[in-house]
Specification:
By secondary structure, the chain is mainly alpha-helical. Helix 1 packs antiparallel against helix 2. The chain has one domain. Helices cover 88% and strands 0% of the residues. It starts with a helix and ends with a helix. It is built from two helices and no strands.
Amino acid sequence: MTAIAIVLILLLLLGILGAVIKGLLWLTVIAIVLFVGAGVYGWFKFKRRSS
């Protein structure tokens, strides 16, 4: 669970960096997609562990 939290924080930082620097807008898009993917993966992993 800690690894997923670290990945989500790094993706959030990359997304903010991409939004701040106009030339790196593509980085924001990639970070959002990966952030959502990591969140969904963590949610399913958490659901499977708790049941």
